[in-house]
Amino acid sequence: MLKEQLAVMDLLKNLIRGNMENISKVTYTPQKPAFEEEAFSQPFPRMTPESQGVPSRRLAAFFEELAGDSRTDLHHVMVLRHGNVIGEADVAPYGRDMWHASYSMCKTVTGMAIGMLIEEGKLSLEDKVLHLLDSKSLLAGIRQKNLKVEHLLTMTSGVTFNETGIVSGDDWTASYLQAGVKGTPGTKFEYNSMNTYILSAIVTKLTGESMMDYLRPRLWEPMGITRVFWEACPKGITKGGWGLFIGTEDAAKLGQLYLQKGNWKGRQLIPESWVETATSKHMDTPESMGPYGYGYQVWMGGRPGSYTFNGMLGQNIVVYPDIDMVVAANAGSDELFQSCVLLNIVKKYFEEDFKPGEELPEDPAGLRKLRDVEDGLRRDGRKGVPGLAGTGGRYGWRAVSCASGSGIRRSGRTLKKGSLDAWNRPRKNGRENHFLEEEKLKRLLDGRVYRLEQTHVGLSPLVLQVFHNNYTEGIHSVGFHFENKKFYISMEEGGLLHRLEIGFGKAAVTEVSFHGEPYLLGTEGKFTRDEDGYPVLKLDIAFLEEAVRRKMKCFFRNHGENIEIHWDETPGGRMIKEGLGSLLSDSLKNGLMEAIRDKLGVDLAEILVDRTIHPIVTGSCAPEKAESEET
User: Fold this and answer.
1) Does residue 455 sit in the same domain as residue 340?
2) pLDDT tens track for 539-575
3) Are residue 427 and residue 370 in the same domain, yes or no?
4) Pairing relation of β-strands 508-514 and 535-543?
5) At 86, is the secondary structure helix, strand, or coil?
6) How far apart are alpha carbons 335 and 345 in whole angstroms?
7) Model confidence at 411: pLDDT above 50
8) Helix or strand or coil: residue 159?
9) What are the residues facing 244 on neighbouring strands?
């Protein structure tokens, strides 16, 4: 494991120092395609909640609480009863039917593939992993000789090579098989996404095709799941434990498939016996992750017989067999496992003494309330629901504060009459019309390009860079343009110019390419002032296919000659600090952290967060407009 630990340390060092050139030891190849809108296949029927025995008012309250709690950062949610959609909400700017990163939620899908292989007679739970993968390593033969397929399914392998080690190179299977084992396989639950990756590698070894291709005729096509993408490792093996992009309704289909014991429209896609075994408790789990136990790549739930396909940052499919219900949700929280705010709210509405009937009298007023909540969230996000608009937290902004800007270089550019000096002074009474101020600043910023002094920060959040092995080359300049009544921010990064339209009051959507991988971004802006009355442009940039956001606060100083950008992202510093301890072995972690603490008087986690999550970047207005190729 020394190689992997040193690779992690090297990555952290380069991130802290801002050395972004050749930062990755893993071969990068663009994989993610653009999301293509097309006719949705095999949608669920839509029915009123009362016709399925659930009160509309209960669903309305559920959606309001989910969206209203800023800790969830809800994107999409869908509720099924008896195989019918009885409620669905998409929180703007996240559009209906768009696919979404599932993270570990897709582990259960990998488990489905294993169940299919067992049914085909190609695999058994007792098969030894080393034998299946034809490992010839003498060291592996000693360390992992007793490792079985079931141990991978129950997260009890004990193998020390985990997901953080993949930054060390391209051959993840070899690194896993050469790693040590803690304790005896099958005895202790230790969550490790590489167990799931190895299950995917076994699928490829036994079938001669990637797991994604193996599932296409057996799962995706029969269920009408056409808008789906799954990343592969540098060796072409489907990642298995993460990397799946799938829409909320298609994800709900997977939950409904397990609810129906593997049967879809009269066709048995997954053996019923497998579903029953997979969704039964096999191991106890830590309270901090989930208090109810773990099956085969699926978490047990609080309601008797229930279970959850769980992915970090709020990706969940919750199945309640006893009441014939499925709840699917995508979000952007900063929580990693089943013990989280989002699932606590789900539990409140669908577990604690909830006993739906078969049919209720229709409630027109209650249904109207539900539809108003759904429409408001879809149209205007949280602002579209009375009582939620204007609340703080993840959606809001902290008080805007900035130093005076002293020490920032000036370009020497001569200001014309009516330029930013008209804005760049304290407001006397705070009563001036905000719309006029906003329009005035847009015009004054038009054509301005700022050359940045610190160039290690990228538009893509750190979580995305690491997850997709797609690292920034740093933003070198930022510019603003006002054309045809639309306002844009441009960022020169890696020789390309990202040009994002900024919506005011509602996010504007732009497709941006990061090294050949396209992402849809929703950008919403707001002009405000700091405590001294100087202008600030705040930007919330939502990555619409992911669970992350970029945030910028642009302070304009010295009559608009200088800019100071305060960067942030979600999930942010809290998750980085909590997760850093798992990156290194105890000996290396303690030695590295103690050395930095003794030398600099600060924690490694604090340095990493300040340099990568909350950096402050300064720049000066360029004499001429930067020339770059647009993306």
Assistant:
1) no
2) 999 999 999 999 999 999 888 899 999 999 988 766 6
3) no
4) unpaired
5) strand
6) 14
7) no
8) strand
9) 230
